[in-house]
């Protein structure tokens, strides 16, 4: 959990989100819809973004889980966190932790060459990184909803990190 091993005994029905918030006190990931539709609970599991409200905690045994609290390292904000501050890419902040984790996951997906719905279909998957254009960023972050409408600044912040 955020770079440190954790040994927990949890109810086999508990979601990762509930364990994060209730058992570990990591309240960055939010319970928005509880159906995996809003992205407020997005975390990184073994480097891939995931909706923690849909994951059973017991199924994550041995996995590396990174929450928004674990993005900063050594007192330094993660570049995407700094870009969100610089671009004022949040209003109420409710969705921000999920947006941040999702953006970090997007960088890894694009670097690995994973295509999105808007990636040129003629481009072979997995053959070099996918350029994160404004359209790619919007598509890849489309599973994270912002009720305040901070999308233009969110996209701009993510775009800043890609430069």
From TrEMBL:
Domain 2Fe-2S ferredoxin-type: 1-71
UniProt cross-references to SUPFAM superfamilies, sorted A to Z: 2Fe-2S ferredoxin-like, CO dehydrogenase ISP C-domain like
Keyword flag Heme: no
Gene3D superfamilies reported in the protein's UniProt record: 3.10.20.30, [2Fe-2S]-binding domain
InterPro entries: 2Fe-2S-bd, 2Fe-2S-bd_dom_sf, 2Fe-2S_ferredoxin-like_sf, 2Fe-2S_ferredoxin-type, 2Fe2S_fd_BS, Aldehyde_Oxdr_Iron-Sulfur, Beta-grasp_dom_sf
Entry keyword Metal-binding: yes
Assigned keywords, A-Z: Iron, Metal-binding, Oxidoreductase
Protein's name according to its UniProt entry: 2Fe-2S iron-sulfur cluster-binding protein
Organism, as annotated: Streptomyces lavendulocolor
Classification lineage: Bacteria, Bacillati, Actinomycetota, Actinomycetes, Kitasatosporales
């Amino acid at each position: 959990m955020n770079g440190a091993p954790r040994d927990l005994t949890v109810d086999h029905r508990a979601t990762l989100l509930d364990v994060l918030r209730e058992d570990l006190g990591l309240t960055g990931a939010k319970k928005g819809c509880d159906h995996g539709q809003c992205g407020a609970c997005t975390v990184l599991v073994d480097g891939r973004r995931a909706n923690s409200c849909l994951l059973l905690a017991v199924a994550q045994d041995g996995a590396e889980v990174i929450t928004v609290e674990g993005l900063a390292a050594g007192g330094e904000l993660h570049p995407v966190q700094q870009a969100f501050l610089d671009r004022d890419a949040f209003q109420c902040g409710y969705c921000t932790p999920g947006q941040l984790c999702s953006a970090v996951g997007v960088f890894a997906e694009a670097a690995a060459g994973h295509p999105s719905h808007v990636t040129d279909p003629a481009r072979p998957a997995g053959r070099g990184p996918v350029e994160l254009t404004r359209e790619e960023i919007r598509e890849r972050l489309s599973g994270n909803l912002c009720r305040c409408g901070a999308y233009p600044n969110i996209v701009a912040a993510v775009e800043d990190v890609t430069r």
